[in-house]
Amino acid sequence: MESTTYKGNYSAYVSQKEENLRIQYEHLREQQKKINVMEKSVTNLRDWAMRADNNKFFKRAASIQKKLDKLDRIDKPVFEKRNMKLDLKAAERSGKETIKATGLVKSYADKFIFKDTNLMVHYGERVGLIGPNGSGKTTFLKMLLGEEQPDRGVVELGANVMAPIYHRKSPLKMKS
After folding, report:
1. Coil, strand, or helix at residue 93?
2. How confident is the model at residue 58 (pLDDT cuts 50, 70, 90)?
3. Which of 52, 66, 125, 135 is the most interior residue, by most CB within 10 Å?
4. Which helix (H) or strand (E) holds 58?
């Protein structure tokens, strides 16, 4: 697949793309005419060689056929707009409680990240983790995903909850 760069805004892109497709179509038509002439020449030369029993005509026909085989063919431009194809599977609705953390304790050496922390997130609620560096945002997410264990307490995902995993250095994955 080939990538093309367009300059300007979206309207300029649309007009440039249409122009490129029109030019590609014209080149295709010219090439098809040339191919038809060459194929007809090959057929005529072979026919004449058979009738006259002349090797020169066979050689010329083979030469033209070789040129035809080596010819770099232009792809037919696609004018219709293709719709995006999405296959979204309907997910089951999660339970009323989506995330539940009770009695959460997590520390590193003498520094407590969480101390007897409780959290309940219900279906439909939106939550943001905001805090300074080192306050435990990533640690909490790792405990939620089961990548890290709390010192005490329990972190649970609700029924039918699937957690998307995003590592800073790798693409998004789904954990079931």
Report:
1. coil
2. confident
3. 135
4. helix 55-70
- Give the fold, CATH level 3, of 97-175: Rossmann fold (3.40.50)
Secondary structure element (H or E) that encloses residue 39, with its range: helix 10-52
Contacts by 33-39 with C-beta closer than 8 Å and gap 24+?
A: 35/68, 35/71, 38/64, 38/67, 38/68, 39/68
Structure tokens at 90: 């309907």
Determine the pLDDT at residue 174: 56
Residue located via tokens 């990240």: 113
Three-state SS at 116: strand
pLDDT at residue number 14: 86
Residue 102 has phi, psi (to 5 degrees) of: -130, 135
More confident residue, 9 or 144: 9
pLDDT at 29 over 90: yes
**Interacting residues of 141 by C-beta distance below 8 A, sequence separation 6+:** 129
